[in-house]
Amino acid sequence: MDQLELFELPNPCIGVCESNQRGYCKGCLRSREERFNWHLKSATERARILKLLAQRRARLQQKANAGSQPEPQPGSLDLF
Asked: Looking at per-residue confidence, does 67 or 69 come out higher?
């Protein structure tokens, strides 16, 4: 039995509807199955998908941060 939600869970679509090489939308990071019939999915299923999206965003952010940090120069101190 689904728990009654007080607020409607938002559709994460941002209007950038293009799939990457793994099949996830470049805008909202959902798979085709996750995007299909969003408005018909239960609140529990939508909440599960939104948690997955948060994890995917965090992984992408980690990758972006790892690639943008400069390597320390030999002989220099990294204080931060």
From this structure: 67
